[in-house]
């Protein structure tokens, strides 16, 4: 995003300015009335639109001969030259009467709900230079013909439902910008129909193009932007591509490109953005960035690249983003950060890099995102990190860093740090630091899992008023869970599992404000990192920049907790996951738990609970995982609702628990034949009812998945789509799969 070349704006401005003078002239020439043929065509055009188009001021009066003053209409000498009806909530389609507006120079209908075919008459407008139909619902093939669009310079039909082969404009000698992204065009890319004109921007992103990146594109010598990302392109990059002298943006990410990157890449000295991520490129990264003085962003993430980090990246003074995540790069981080004052994102997670963090990185005071996760780095967090005043996201997960206390001492000075992920480090037997830490006022996500830490929940967490997500699972922490933890206003995801916490659950956990209120309107954006844009078929996007896509959860399993399960949990209507398994909780399962109406996972297994399973729990319509195995429960297993979907294993290890398959009243079973027979009949009837219940349960499960989908997708994407190796991948697995004890084994 934000990838529009300034030059495109310049171009549009230039094209529009060309007749802007004329437009102004029209306003000066008050006596000018619009051409009667144009008036008629405009009226026919408006008839083609839906009825409710109130945005068209003036358009409803058919006697009005001053149509040049109508909304969105520009004239020159009484002829309509411009039609800008963008973002006017228009529906309907484009009438073929547009053919009569034969003086049109620019049409902008973007951001409406127009549908149907784009009429072939558009291509017959002799003077049309700008056509913007972007963000509508147009479908079918695009009507470009051999002699169509003779004067066209800019075509933007992005984000519609056009299909078929990509349009080409053989008659257009001046085509400069062609944006067809976000449609369902398919087939190969035919460069011979594109490169005859002085094309500067080819944006074919997000379609279904297949085949190779055509080497003929090298004849588009004026090309400034080539975006073929998010298609199904295969094959390797022809080295011809590296001969485009003016190329500033090369975006080929999310295809299936293979082969290695050529040294000739270095000839693209004008490059501003290079994105080859999410392909299958192999070999080493050519160390040829030395001449790319304008380079701002390099993304080669998720390929199969090996070798060392290209040191010549140090020569790109404007560089803001380096993402080389998820490759097999090795060696040390040998980049001279002194020459990268603008660096904002440095993501080298999931590689095989070794050595220490270069202290010099601290000169990059604009650094916001630093991901070093899943490498073989060692040593301490350099003292100089105090200088990284802009740092917002830091992940060190899965390295061998040491001395947590000094790391926290340093990092607490960073005023803007919102996400800190330290999982799987400091494993030499360190203790959770308790004293001398007071910063972290902006912290929203703190993950310090699987570090073998001893000690207690540190009191300095109390002052982390912005904290949303806390994961200190898989350590050896002990002591009670302090009541103030439940009072942290913004905390809605707590994972304390697999420690040695003891004592009872603090009552404050039943009053957690975010968990117990429905909806999440008040949650603030965590970071201005864009986590996700979900586009639906209309091309509109839902943006997720929020930690709030985490499911509200309380995960306290595998500890030494005792006492009752608090009936007050029933107030937590927004809680999605409650896991109290593998503790020593006792007493009954409170029937009030049915108040947790969003609950998807309820795990109470391996405790000392007694009494019966409250039938009120069948009201939990979203429950997809339920486990009460290995307790001392008795009585009948409730039927109906989601309960029909749970398996025997979820109830195992409760000797006095009755189900249809396993009777608990042994004595009853051995009574006289008649009664036994009756029982069999009863069983049959119940089992029919059960099947009905099962179908209903499936339906509910389905609807649960359906409705919960948005956050689930968001969360998955949050975990693995962007620059970051996010924490808690396994938590998603837990929520969505049944066998979750196993997943713990792959805790990050
Ligand atoms: C005003 O319009 C008339 C025709 O309607 C034309 O003859 C005249 O040249 C125009 N004046 C200007 C300043 O454009
Ligand atoms: C438009 O003209 C028709 C007849 O030519 C007339 O009946 C009608 O009232 C006029 N409408 C307006 C808004 O002037
Ligand atoms: C069309 O109008 C929109 C405003 O809704 C504007 O952003 C866009 O730049 C215009 N298109 C062209 C080609 O000028
Ligand atoms: C579209 O119009 C709405 C209001 O009608 C406005 O809020 C929005 O900013 C406009 N969008 C663009 C891109 O002009
Ligand atoms: C085409 O239109 C879309 C949506 O209006 C816009 O985001 C994009 O920048 C435009 N393409 C070009 C090349 O200007
Ligand atoms: C590309 O288009 C030209 C002109 O329409 C045509 O002659 C040629 O066969 C096409 N090439 C491919 C590979 O489709
Ligand atoms: C790249 O540039 C060098 C000279 O700087 C030239 O020798 C070489 O042929 C160019 N490579 C390509 C593929 O154009
Ligand atoms: C990492 O790359 C591999 C292939 O190289 C891919 O299968 C996997 O999905 C990628 N992981 C992430 C988190 O992007
Ligand atoms: C990382 O390096 C080790 C040797 O040091 C090698 O065995 C391993 O396969 C490498 N891993 C990757 C993902 O390249
Ligand atoms: C910290 O974040 C705030 C809000 O996002 C921003 O205005 C400020 O410039 C940042 N401070 C630094 C040092 O980057
Ligand atoms: C608990 O954490 C340890 C590492 O600290 C891990 O080895 C073990 O598998 C975890 N146990 C469970 C049940 O998750
Ligand atoms: C697409 O997303 C927009 C905005 O999120 C929404 O209003 C619209 O209903 C969605 N359209 C479809 C077809 O899902």
From TrEMBL:
Gene Ontology terms: cellular component: plasma membrane
Keyword Oxidoreductase: no
Keywords: Cell membrane, Glycoprotein, Leucine-rich repeat, Membrane, Receptor, Repeat, Signal, Transmembrane, Transmembrane helix
Stretches that traverse the bilayer: 688-708
Leucine-rich repeat-containing N-terminal plant-type domain sequence ranges: 36-76
Keyword Repeat: yes
Localization (cell): Cell membrane; Membrane
Cross-referenced InterPro entries: Leu-rich_rpt, Leu-rich_rpt_typical-subtyp, LRR_dom_sf, LRR_N_plant-typ
Membrane topology reported for the UniProt record: Single-pass membrane protein
Broad class of where this protein is predominantly found: membrane
Signal sequence extent: 1-25
Family note: Belongs to the RLP family.
Protein name in the entry: Leucine-rich repeat-containing N-terminal plant-type domain-containing protein
């Amino acid at each position: 995003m934000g990838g529009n070349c300034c030059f495109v704006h310049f171009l549009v401005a230039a094209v529009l300015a060309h007749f802007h003078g004329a437009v102004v002239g029209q306003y000066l020439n008050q006596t000018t009335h619009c051409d009667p043929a144009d008036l008629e065509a405009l009226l026919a055009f408006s008839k083609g639109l839906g009825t409710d188009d109130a945005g068209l001021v003036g358009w409803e009066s058919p006697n009005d001969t001053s149509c040049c003053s109508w909304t969105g209409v520009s004239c020159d000498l009484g002829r309509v030259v411009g039609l800008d009806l963008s973002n006017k909530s228009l529906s309907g389609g484009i009438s073929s009467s547009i053919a009569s507006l034969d003086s049109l120079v620019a049409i902008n209908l973007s951001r409406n709900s127009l549908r149907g075919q784009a009429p072939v008459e558009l291509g017959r407008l002799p003077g049309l230079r700008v056509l913007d139909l972007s963000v509508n619902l147009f479908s079918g093939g695009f009507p470009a013909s051999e002699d169509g669009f003779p004067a066209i310079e800019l075509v933007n039909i992005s984000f519609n439902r056009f299909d078929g082969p990509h349009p080409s404009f053989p008659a257009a000698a001046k085509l400069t910008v062609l944006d067809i992204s976000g449609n369902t065009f398919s087939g190969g890319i035919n460069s011979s129909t594109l490169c005859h004109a002085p094309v500067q921007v080819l944006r074919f992103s997000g379609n279904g193009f297949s085949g190779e990146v055509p080497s003929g594109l090298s004849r588009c010598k004026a090309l400034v932007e080539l975006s073929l990302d998010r298609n199904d392109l295969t094959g390797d990059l022809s080295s011809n591509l590296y001969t485009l002298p003016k190329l500033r943006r090369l975006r080929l990410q999310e295809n299936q490109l293979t082969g290695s990157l050529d040294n000739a890449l270095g000839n693209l000295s004008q490059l501003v953005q290079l994105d080859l991520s999410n392909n299958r490129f192999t070999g080493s990264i050519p160390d040829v960035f030395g001449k790319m003085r304008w380079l701002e962003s390099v993304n080669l993430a998720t390929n199969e690249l090996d070798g060392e980090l290209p040191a010549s990246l140090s020569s790109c003074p404007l560089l803001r983003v380096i993402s080389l995540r998820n490759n097999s790069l090795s060696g040390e981080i040998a980049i001279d950060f002194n020459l990268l004052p603008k660096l904002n994102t440095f993501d080298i997670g999931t590689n095989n890099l070794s050595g220490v963090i270069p202290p010099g990185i601290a000169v990059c005071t604009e650094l916001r995102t630093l991901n070093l996760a899943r490498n073989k780095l060692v040593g301490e967090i350099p003292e100089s990190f105090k200088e990284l005043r802009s740092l917002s996201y830091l992940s060190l997960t899965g390295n061998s860093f040491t001395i947590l206390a000094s790391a926290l001492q340093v990092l607490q000075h960073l005023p803007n740090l919102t996400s800190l992920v330290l999982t799987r480090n400091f494993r030499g037997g360190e203790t959770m630091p308790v004293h001398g830490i007071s910063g972290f006022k902006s912290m929203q996500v703190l993950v310090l899992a699987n570090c073998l830490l001893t000690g207690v929940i540190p009191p300095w967490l109390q002052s982390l008023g912005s904290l949303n997500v806390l994961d200190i699972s898989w350590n050896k922490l002990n002591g009670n869970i302090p009541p103030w933890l439940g009072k942290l206003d913004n905390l809605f995801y707590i994972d304390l599992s697999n420690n040695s916490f003891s004592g009872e659950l603090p009552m404050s956990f039943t009053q957690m404000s975010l968990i117990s209120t429905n909806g999440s309107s008040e949650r603030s954006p965590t970071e201005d990192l864009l986590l996700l844009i979900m586009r639906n078929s209309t091309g509109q996007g839902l943006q997720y920049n929020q930690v709030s896509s985490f499911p509200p959860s309380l995960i306290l399993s595998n500890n030494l907790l005792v006492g009752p399960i608090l009936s007050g949990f029933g107030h937590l209507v927004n809680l999605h996951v409650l896991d109290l398994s593998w503790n020593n909780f006792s007493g009954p399962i409170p029937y009030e738990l049915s108040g947790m109406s969003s609950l998807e996972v309820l795990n109470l297994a391996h405790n000392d609970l007694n009494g019966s399973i409250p039938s009120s729990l069948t009201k939990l319509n979203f429950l997809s995982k339920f486990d009460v195995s290995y307790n001392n429960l008795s009585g009948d297993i409730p039927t109906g609702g989601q309960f029909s979907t749970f398996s025997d294993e979820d109830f195992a290890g409760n000797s006095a628990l009755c189900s249809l398959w396993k009777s608990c009243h042994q004595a009853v079973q051995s009574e006289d034949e008649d009664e036994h027979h009756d029982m069999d009949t009863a069983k049959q009837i119940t089992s029919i009812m059960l099947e009905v219940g099962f179908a209903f349960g499936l339906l509910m499960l389905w609807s649960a998945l359906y409705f919960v989908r948005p956050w689930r997708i968001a969360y998955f994407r949050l975990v693995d789509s962007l620059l970051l190796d996010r924490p808690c991948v396994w938590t998603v697995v837990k929520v969505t799969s049944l066998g979750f004890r196993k997943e713990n084994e792959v805790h990050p």
